[in-house]
């Protein structure tokens, strides 16, 4: 078990299996020393625990937890191409999409779920640039979707 996976276990979490693509794309691709994940939904065991708009059917706190699930799914996708999460040199960028009710403006707080979890797992390597974007709808009516870019150490 890698040190990163041991840290995940210390937090009472488990690295999930890679979420299978919903369409014609790969969960993650590597280009040079970078791994780019596709947008990760908060799938747990092949299902979305909640659906709907944040600020309507889903609370901001529920969505924040779902964003953390997205980040964990993103780490699984990174491992699928990098082979070992200990190769992560740093998280470079996180982009979070929040399916938002018309008057909901708390997208940054929701995406903090992903950012905070990456920091808890990776420490200083988890500090990153970020965008938090409100959108009308996401695939499968998911409340949140997160994509991650990481830089790897050499092979």
Automatic annotation (TrEMBL):
Q: CDD domains attached here?
A: YjgF_YER057c_UK114_like_1
> Which is one Pfam family of this protein?
YjgF_endoribonc
Q: Which Gene3D superfamilies match?
A: RutC-like (3.30.1330.40)
Endoribonuclease L-PSP/chorismate mutase-like domain location, by residue?
5-147
The signal peptide annotation in the UniProt record is none
Protein name as catalogued: LysR family transcriptional regulator
Recite the lineage of the species.
Answer: Bacteria, Bacillati, Actinomycetota, Actinomycetes, Kitasatosporales
């Amino acid at each position: 078990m890698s040190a990163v996976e041991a840290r995940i276990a210390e937090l009472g979490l488990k690295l999930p299996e890679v979420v299978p693509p919903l369409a014609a794309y790969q969960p993650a691709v590597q280009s040079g020393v970078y791994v780019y994940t596709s947008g990760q939904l908060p799938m747990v065991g092949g299902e979305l625990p909640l659906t709907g708009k944040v600020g309507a059917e889903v609370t901001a706190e529920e969505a924040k937890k779902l964003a953390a699930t997205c980040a964990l799914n993103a780490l699984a996708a990174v491992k699928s191409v990098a082979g070992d999460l200990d190769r992560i040199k740093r998280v470079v960028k996180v982009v979070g999409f929040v399916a938002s009710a018309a008057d909901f403006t708390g997208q940054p707080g929701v995406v903090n779920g992903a950012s905070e979890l990456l920091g808890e797992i990776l420490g200083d390597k988890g500090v990153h640039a970020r965008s938090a974007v409100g959108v009308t709808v996401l695939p499968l009516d998911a409340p949140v979707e997160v994509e991650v870019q990481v830089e790897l150490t050499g092979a």
